[in-house]
Design goal:
The chain is mainly α. It has helices at residues 8-19, 23-30, 41-49, 57-67, 71-78, 87-104, 138-141; strands at 110-111, 122-123, 129-130. It contains 7 helices and 3 strands; from the N terminus they run ααααααβββα.
Length: 143
């Protein structure tokens, strides 16, 4: 459950409803994932109803992007992260990593235009976009 008190299923269902996406449309928007995996409309339905509780990190990442979910809240609510990790913990990690990564090469991070929080993408002074999830190490999102 997120800091806002919503489950991942509630976050996905609410965002999809606001965007006017049915299960078929959301499945198509998610698209083809690594390993040529798809998220079928039936699976989307199970996610929205809270019947599916084990999520692959790439599915969470895709849902965050497609539905424009608050990344930290969604990752915390998805159950992919350790249960003691909160959205605020995740935001702090992303912020430290972005600062450290850019400082290490003498670059200055600037929030991407329209970014509203530290969980949003940053752009380096060379124009390279760094997203929050790109700053996570694979073992940090392993199920």
């Amino acid at each position: 459950m997120s800091a806002t008190g919503q489950t991942f299923a509630e976050m996905v269902d609410q965002a999809a409803s606001v965007l006017g996406l049915n299960d078929y449309q959301l499945s198509a928007a998610i698209g083809l994932m690594p390993g040529n995996r798809v998220c079928s409309p039936k699976q989307v339905s199970r996610i929205r109803k809270g019947e599916q509780v084990n999520y692959r990190p790439e599915l969470v990442e895709r849902l965050v992007a497609v539905l424009k979910l608050d990344a930290a809240e969604a990752w915390a609510a998805s159950g992919v992260l350790p249960p003691e990790m909160t959205a605020e913990d995740l935001r702090a990690i992303w912020e430290r990593r972005a600062t450290r990564a850019l400082t290490a090469v003498g670059r200055v991070a600037q929030p991407v235009e329209g970014a509203s929080s530290t969980a949003d993408p940053f752009t380096s002074d060379q124009g390279k976009t760094i997203t929050a999830t790109s700053l996570l190490l694979p073992e940090e999102v392993a199920a």
